[in-house]
Amino acid sequence: MALSAEGPEVNALLFSGLTVTFLKEFGFGLWLTLPLLLSLATAIAALGLVAGKKERWSRFDSFYWSFVTATTVGYGDIRPVHRVSRVIAIMIALLGLTMTGILIAVAVHAATFALAAHDAAVNAR
Fold first, then answer.
1. What is the pTM of this model?
2. Which CATH number describes the domain made up of 35-120?
3. Mind listing the pLDDT tens digit for each residue in 53-72?
């Protein structure tokens, strides 16, 4: 693998405190959104248990299926056959997309904050 001309600049950027600032801001954002994220995860698990009961799956299979559906991975190894369970699958997918959107929003905010702080530090020199 050949190093590009930007190699040293990229390494300097990563180890200049930018990464630490991002991680701190991301952790803080997760801390702030934790009640919402936990509520969404609880709703996903509960809906999965309801669908699993209707489909006569084990608790573990219900939990597994609900989070595979929420992350939109959908392996297809377990799938609902009853109409009610399929409607629940749609609700789980929407909740999962919401949860993923929140995580992405927190990461984008943290990256924006870290880059702005880094740019301010560079311009202050």
1. 0.82
2. 1.10.287.70
3. 999 999 999 999 999 999 99
Amino acid making up residue 5: A
- SS3 of the chain: helix, strand, coil, percent, to 5: 80, 0, 20
In the chain, what are the domain boundaries?
A: 35-120
Q: Is the dihedral of CA 95, 100, 103, 108 positive or negative?
A: negative
> For the packed helices 19-55 and 83-124, what is the interaxial angle rounded to 10 degrees?
180
Tokens of residue 60, six digits: 């573990």
Q: Would you say 108 and 29 are in contact if contact means Cβ atoms under 8 Å apart?
A: no
In whole angstroms, give the CA distance from residue 67 to residue 110.
26
Q: Kind and range of the H or E element at 52?
A: helix 19-55
Check residue 3 and report its DSSP letter. Answer: P
CA-based R_g, the chain, Å: 21
Burial of 38 (0-12, 13-18, 19+ CB in 10 A): exposed
